[in-house]
């Protein structure tokens, strides 16, 4: 009977011992998981910080590129060009360091359980960005090299450049003058205010078969018309108590009003009024 109790006691002790062992193992694993998660997050933070630095490099390179490729850069002093070259070299070295950091981070992250395809894509995109920046730096160095070569004959070219500028200015002035002349021509209009008799004498009005009246269809007297500008001509006093528009101007583009006992033709829609003809014929009595 004592032996039975002794064996039972051993089993109980063993069971308790096993239970405590499992608890300790679970706690250790949880602690390790926590450390791994914390490490992964820290390395992710390092990656984000590095991405920010790489982006800042891109902003700096773009700024230098704008300077080097600008027209004003040619007139920069040699010391200013050297300063820009030094800045480019410094960025070049920074990119090399960041490329190395990126590769080290990649290696560390790959050892973590939380490493994903998205993280790999992010790292690959940053590598490509660094490669692009290095290519831009190479291009800028080439531009600076060309600038240093060209600076020697820059003084020789100053006179020819000034001449070119002068010629361009003259051409621009001529073009502007021609544009103004063309605009004035397009806005030139003509009008005449006369009696039926005078209009016929000048062949502006012509009676045809069955009493039909033709307007300015033959060799009419253009010198009888008054030259004006469509942009400023808004009304035509007729000096008569009776007046009508006999040319092709649309009826809804003007009105005839009385002012001080005389008729005045007022243009209410200039674009429509001159759409069909640049000639206005007003017949008065």
UniProtKB/TrEMBL annotation:
<keyword id="KW-0175">Coiled coil</keyword>
<protein>
    <recommendedName>
        <fullName>Chromosome partition protein Smc</fullName>
    </recommendedName>
</protein>
<feature type="coiled-coil region">
    <location>
        <begin position="85"/>
        <end position="185"/>
    </location>
</feature>
